[in-house]
Amino acid sequence: MTQGTAGCRMCGLPGPEELRNNGVVKNVGEAPHEELATGERSTRNRVARSILDHGPSTVAELAERLSLTQAAVRRHLDALTGDGVVEAREQRVYGARTRGRPAKVFALTDCGRDAFDQSYDTLAADALRWIADREGGNEAIAAFARARIAAQAGAYRRAVEGVPPEKRTEALAKALSADGYAATARSAPHPQQGEQLCQHHCPVAHVAEQFPQLCEAETEFFAELLGTHVQRLATIAHGDGVCTTFIPKISHNASASTAGRNPA
Fold first, then answer.
1. Which fold is adopted by the domain 16-114?
2. pLDDT tens-digit profile of 5-36?
3. pTM to 2 decimals?
């Protein structure tokens, strides 16, 4: 469930479709709209893409490859550095070192590299498919999903167990939001019946589309954590805009043994 956090300014990273089209960030630097409209953003993307394609590069190398002046390249690199997309480092020298300081090169940071399409979803789906083929089919996937949730459960348990039952859904939403799920708690259409936990983002949605066991294990965990039967009404993995879980009014005697499954 937990989504990794980058130690850099995310600077408005684009979605997967835009990444596949042009390769990097939407809003790099603090340039005014007029400047971006004249091609600054596109050129900045080209600078980052050139570093990705060719590795750590000097200002002179980038200027030659992109047919830009070195002053223009430095301006774009300053913006990309400020946004945490690239970083400056000394060029590695192999063999005998010449006189003078090594040239400065610019390399992509982890944040900058993550802005490009890296096919992590494909890798994860392939790994789960291998587990299913080798270790026992759907049951093996379900066991993996439950183990994954269990390994990440500590923070969620601490958040929920520290509040009264009527505040647990809200506490869980805040804990999920801290992990990047953009979760909220709101009253159900009939408030006397319960609440809805809404997750507006899911970092494993594309994999869960193929392996619904991931969503099912999460639903089961919510039921166990909140101490009541819950029902998953919608999931991003199934094409819905939000992952929505119905949580009835929580009572101390509620049973979590029959957690609701995902919609088919």
1. Arc Repressor Mutant, subunit A (1.10.10)
2. 334 443 433 433 343 333 344 333 344 444 44
3. 0.62
